[in-house]
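Usage

Read records sequentially. Each one opens with the input sequence:
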Amino acid sequence: MRECITSRISLSTDNTTDAQSACNAAASADAGLCSLGLDIEHAIRMEMTANLDVAPGTCSAPYSSQKRKLQILPTDCLEEQPDLATAFPEMSAKFLFDSLIVHKLAHAFLDQAAADRFLTTIAHEYLAHAIQLDAFPERDRAHMIAKADVQEPIKLAQTNDAVLKLSPLRFAAMSWFHFRHEGRDSSLVQRAVDGKVIFDSLRERLFSFRTRIHGNRKRRSLPSARPKADSRRGPFGDAAALPPRRAQTMARGAAGPPPLDQKRKLALTDAVVASTSIPDPSKSSN
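and closes with the structure output:
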């Protein structure tokens, strides 16, 4: 068991082949994330193992925010991942290994930076992919962007859930383009963490809608300085201020239904009796 420990990140692994590479990638990611204004209060534990806590094939580097633990597959296991060719084509397992550490540590730092604030998945992925691609050497980044076939300018609405699911590489390229255009600095990251950057996602729309509804309910529950007049009646509780037709309708409703005249009342009674009477057997045709 080998461990390389910094003030923020520790790595434990039995794999001596990739241990130093993981330490270097983590140290580089730590410095880059700090330059973007992201800080953590609790140390993050990294584990490099072939036996992940998730089902095989579902993820190459899962992160648990509750345990503050990041797991990653060694390079020899990454070569066997079926999603390697679809997400990042022509990327070697060694390069993907270092890149995944940057991506997942970005999630870990963002998780602690957000604290109790709600940060949508699309906001997490936008920042993590942009920071991941920004850490690429320029030549490799240009190659990946060419594969993604993305052209500037990029609008923030283009970095949405659908693109993330259908083409992670295209999403990463668009996120990086927009991130670079907006300055790729700590102020942009802080605005995203604070929820001031609105992403186009269904979850964020629902959250914004619930926030507005909750705010409206709180405002309606506050005591008013003076009692409001009944909107259905006049300011003094009567129907004087209502339009004549509406006032007549409300007056009829308060008085109850109009009485039936005697002739109509007898006709209705006869109809009810006829519908409920039992037929006489002696008058049967048989």
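Summary fields computed downstream for this record:
- The radius of gyration is 34 Å.
- The first strand starts at residue 2 and ends at 5.
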